[in-house]
Design a protein that fits this description.
mainly beta; five-stranded mixed sheet; 10 strands; elongated
Length: 222
């Protein structure tokens, strides 16, 4: 529940062991909201039609350091054996990550991705079947931001390519070991795919065998 959280505050965790009396403490910063610039949050549809690289652009948040973006593509299946039953599925497409120079906020950030990966993902993850008809649905953009301590923790615990495998232990818990940090999630829901993207989904090289059709008249938006 973030309703009562203040982005200008620093939050302190204090744990007192009732047996030993030991005190364990840590702090985590509040995080400001993220400002998305591309794709424009006011537009209705997005496109993966062009061969050029796509990108997610935004301004970094105050106290934010690590950013990860993904699209959640909702699509629907109707089986010939039960044509009145529409089944919704979601394909998670991770676009990439970026790290800001500072945690001050307001830094112009960009995460680039290959537009064609949208079709590759569907080709690799959906089963080719003659008895199912598929329809494109809406697509959500999610950008998750982690505070500087979270970025350090992830960086320290990444697999090492060195022959020296011992890794330093990162903790921000006084008198203990662990991580107390902040994370913020931005969500822009209900983008549609533009017409060119839908047509490529229907007849393109990678997805034509998946039997996608155009949006049906009662296309549901959540």
């Amino acid at each position: 529940d973030t309703i009562w959280l203040n982005t200008d505050y620093t939050y302190r965790l204090t744990i007192v062991d009732p047996v030993t009396g030991n005190v364990y403490e840590s702090e985590a910063p509040g995080m400001s909201s993220l400002s998305l610039t591309s794709p424009n949050p006011s537009i209705v549809s997005v496109s993966f039609y062009t061969e050029s690289m796509g990108n997610i652009k935004f301004n970094s948040t105050k106290n934010g350091k690590l950013y990860e973006a993904k699209y959640m593509f909702h699509y629907y299946e109707v089986f010939d054996s039960n044509p009145t039953d529409t089944i919704e599925h979601v394909l998670e497409w991770t676009l990439g990550s970026a790290v800001s120079e500072t945690a001050v906020g307001g830094e112009a950030m960009v995460i680039k991705f290959n537009n064609w990966d949208f079709y590759y993902q569907l080709q690799n993850k959906l089963e080719v079947r003659d008895d199912v008809t598929r329809f494109p649905g809406y697509i959500d953009l999610i950008v998750t931001c982690g505070a500087e301590d979270l970025n350090t923790y992830i960086d320290v615990n990444q697999p090492s390519n060195s022959i020296i495998q011992e890794r330093p232990t990162f903790s921000n818990i006084t008198n203990g070991i662990g991580l107390f940090t902040s994370k913020y999630t931005y969500r822009r829901a209900n983008y549609k795919l533009n017409n060119q993207t839908v047509q490529l989904l229907i007849g393109g090289e990678y997805t034509s065998s998946l039997n996608f059709q155009d949006y049906w008249p009662n296309f549901p938006l959540h």
